[in-house]
Amino acid sequence: MTNSDIARLRLFNQRIAAATFKKPSDVVEWFGAVQAQDYLGALWAVGLRMRKAVEADIEGALAEKTIVRTWPMRGTLHFVAAEDVRWMLELLTPRIVAGRARRVYEQMDLTETVFARSKELFAKILQGGKQLPRNVMYQRLEAARISTADGRGLHILSRLAQDGFLCFGAREGKQQTFALLAEWAPTAKSLERDAALAELARRYFTSHGPATLQDFAWWSGLATADARAGLEMIKPQLRQETIDGQSYWLSPSATAVKETSSLIARLLPVYDEYTVAYKDRSAVLDPSHASQASYGIFNSTILVDGRIVGNWKRTLKKDRVFIETSLLVKLGKTEMCALAEAANRYGEFLGMPVTLP
Question: What's the pTM value of the predicted model, to 2 decimals?
Answer without folding.
Answer: 0.94
